[in-house]
Amino acid sequence: MQEDFILDNEIEEEDYICYHPTEDKKVFGNFLDKDEYEIYVSKEYNLNEISSKLTEYMNWFSLCKDEVVEYLKNNSGEEQPEEWFSTIEVYNIEIIFNSPDDFSAIVTLGKSIDENCIIEVDFEKFQITDSSLNN
Hints:
Layout: E1 5-7, E2 16-21, E3 25-27, E4 30-32, E5 37-42, H1 47-63, H2 65-75, H3 82-86, E6 89-99, E7 102-111, E8 114-124, E9 127-134
C-alpha cells in the first residue's frame, strides 16, 4: 500500500502528513492529476493502518458522480441545463483521515468555460454534508 503513495514534503501540517497517489486517479468518473489528489493522514496513524478504508474511499469517489450530480441538482438553488452537470470537471480532492473510522473529504469542481464558478462539495465518510458556490 505504501508504494502506491508519495509523501509530500512541501505541505507541512501540524497534525497531518500529506500524500499523493503515484498515478492519476479517477474522481467522479474522470481522471484527476495525482498532484491535485491530496490525502491527509493524522500523525497518530500510519498509512498502512488506514489503507483498506482509504482504498474503499478512493474507489467510491471514482464511481459516485451520479450521486453528486443529483445532490447538486437538488441543492444548487439555480436551475441549470442538464448538460451543465454532465460536463463538470474536478479540480482537486482533499481526503482527511483523522482515524480509520473518522474520515472526510472536500472536492472542488466546476467548469473550465466558467472559471468564476467553483463548487466545493463536503463529504463526511460516504455522505455529502454540504456544498458551496464560490464565485
